[in-house]
Design brief:
Layout (H helix, E strand, L loop, with lengths): L6 E5 L3 H11 L4 E5 L2 H8 L6 E5 L7 H10 L8 E5 L4 H9 L4 E4 L4 H57 L6 H18 L2 H5 L7 H6 L12 H4 L7 H8 L1 H16 L3 H12 L20 H16 L10 H10 L7 H9 L1 H16 L4 H10 L11
Parallel strand pairs: 1-2, 1-3, 3-4, 4-5
């Protein structure tokens, strides 16, 4: 508890009452005596008291008018107000308390009673401050714990994704880049209010982006002969490759059974299962069409295909950014959600830049400026201004 002397402002138009009040209180408190509401407000510009003792019956601005003005200002509203009055009726007391006063003391003062009432309210205010400090500290602890859990979950997801990528080493950096592309697409949707049109209620959930790293987790079940084949797959091999979507969902289901219904696992399952569905219904594994395909799957379809087109593979050279964009535009309304293709084309230059920055990072040649640029491109959704 704070042992510093508390400050009380005593407001009364009667000089005798001010003198008596100050003499009673000055041994324990810093006391300012003020003869009107206007003088109180001028003093409040310089000094913030712990209590205000306020007479009700004053000329020009009575106590009721003063407390209304005090409570209307966020800076002075928290200051406890004790009404002082010669009135002795319940209606006056009720009115004062309803306006926000913490107590109601009748004049003439009973010195012992006055001191005890002030000590009681001082204790209450002290306990309120301690409780607020405790709650603030507790909130800080909870936030730190929540952040620690998020970091741990992100590390686990990254580790699982890297295990897949180590097996499918021809796609080096694919999982990380597709997460970046996804962030750019979603940011662009927010800027253009497309998220409202598509009903993207979870647009600001950060778990959405980290869970995207598991979209290819099912590849861990695919044979190395297929996964690392230096050439096009046969129809039979392609059928086996297609099972990575359903196996991915099954893997995530098993994790959910053991750890519970974490929301990031729900997102991850949708990514894993639906990112190869096509707008016209010719995709896999379920042949979903149009908006029956979850939005996560429709978004990842664009990010996934773009990266596959611009990446080098043993059986093909990397395509140019321009050619990859042209292919995605050609797939508008067939492979891809037409509205999302429009969003992609509006920010395709950022895809190209992120690809270059990502490759620079992977090669170890990225400088501090490039790292900062990448972070800026991937700034959180909520920092984007909404267009009017």
């Amino acid at each position: 508890m704070n042992n510093a002397r508390e400050t009380i402002m005593l407001v009364d138009d009667n000089v005798s009452n001010l003198t008596i009040g100050k003499n009673l209180l000055r041994d324990k408190y810093n006391v300012f005596t003020l003869s009107s509401g206007e003088k109180l407000f001028k003093m409040l510009e310089k000094v913030r008291p712990d209590f205000i003792m306020l007479d009700i019956e004053m000329p020009e601005m009575d106590g009721y008018a003063v407390i209304k003005r005090l409570k209307a200002d966020p800076k002075t509203a928290p200051i406890p107000v004790i009404f002082l009055t010669a009135k002795n009726d319940s209606n006056s007391e009720l009115e004062g308390l309803s306006l926000g006063a913490v107590d109601y003391i009748s004049k003439p003062f009973s010195p012992p009673l006055l001191m005890k009432r002030i000590e009681l309210h001082s204790l209450i205010e002290s306990q309120k401050r301690e409780l607020k400090e405790y709650n603030d500290n507790l909130q800080g602890i909870v936030e730190k714990k929540t952040e620690a859990v998020f970091i741990l979950q992100n590390v686990v997801l990254q580790t699982m994704a890297e295990l897949v990528e180590c097996r499918d080493d021809i796609t080096g950096g694919h999982i990380e880049r597709t997460r970046y592309y996804l962030q750019i697409l979603v940011n662009a949707m927010v800027e253009r209010n497309v998220n409202r049109e598509l009903g993207l209620a979870w647009i600001k959930d950060r778990y959405f982006f980290v869970s995207a790293q598991l979209h290819d987790v099912g590849k861990i079940t695919i044979s190395d002969n297929i996964l690392k084949k230096p050439g096009p797959l046969t129809p039979e091999e392609f059928e086996e490759m297609k099972t990575h979507t359903t196996f991915g969902a099954q893997i995530i289901d098993k994790i959910k059974q053991r750890v519970g219904g974490e929301v990031f696992l729900d997102y991850a399952r949708i990514f894993a299962l639906t990112h190869h569905e096509k707008w016209d219904g010719t995709g896999y594994p379920a042949g979903l069409a149009g908006e029956d395909i979850p939005l996560q799957g429709r978004l990842m379809a664009i990010a996934d295909v773009y990266d596959a087109l611009i990446a080098e593979r043993p059986y093909k050279k990397p395509m140019s950014h321009e050619r990859a964009c042209a292919i995605i535009e050609e797939g508008k309304g067939r492979h891809f959600d037409p509205r999302l293709v429009d969003v992609f084309l509006s920010v395709s230059g950022l895809f190209e830049r992120v690809t270059a920055l990502s490759q620079s990072l992977m090669s170890g040649n990225a400088g501090a400026d490039e790292k900062m640029e990448l972070e800026k491109l991937l700034r959180p959704v909520e920092l984007y201004p909404k267009k009017q």
